[in-house]
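Lab notebook: predicted structure, single chain.

Context: the supervisor wants predicted structures on file for every construct in the current expression panel, including those that have not yet been purified. This is the next one on the list. No modifications to the sequence; it matches the entry in the shared construct table.
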Amino acid sequence: MARKPAKANRRHPLATVVLIAIGLAFTGGGYALFTSTATAQTDTASSTSQSSVDEGKKLFAANCATCHGMSLEGSTAGPALLGVGAASVDFQVGTGRMPLAMQGPQAMEKPPQFTEEQTQALADYVASLSPGPAIPTDDQLTANGNATNGGELFRINCAMCHNVAGAGGALTEGKFAPSLTGVDSKYIYEAMLTGPQNMPVFNDHNITPEDKRDIITYLKYIQNNDSTGGYDLGNLGPVAEGLFIWIFGIGAVVALTVWLTAKSN
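Prediction complete. Output recorded below exactly as produced.
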């Protein structure tokens, strides 16, 4: 019986093996390239972060450890910093409240002693030992939220100390709630997040990040727009308004009465 001739288009038995090998070579090469690039980026970020932590450790040892302890355990001169996170360090150091200039009812705001890079390094170091609330991102600080909702939240949670217009106010034992006019959005957010000094902590379960942004939007709105009620008298509330009425209002009535009496005589 005659044998059938092989088809002209029949593939070689090793063709499939060659194709698989080529596919594996391309796949493996691409994966290796991607992995090496990602690893290099991770190593660079890790190196940068570690260098920041190392710099923060030096700054902390020289400026903060005397009161707070090298391991954040605190002392009789300063509280422990375990769990305060980067946000608290950024707020306290960035506003100049720390290092403390002198003992008093509360830490006073003053020109910061450290640069932004040094402040970040201190925050990185503290967060590396004991994680806590992180520094807010730019998206969380954009004052494009709902000012109406922010105003309502501010009046409910903040106005009893900071005044409805954020002008600040006196507290007990020589303490006070500072004015919020001109304060950077980052520090307003961090203050809500960490509760510095006499302020309660408003974590993300109490006031969500979106609500915090609304509060910042409200504060920036009243700061950048004129009062619709006329002369604001410093936004100091009923005390300033009452004093104004006593001096000028009742004073005018008394002066008018004296003038009328003198004229009749």
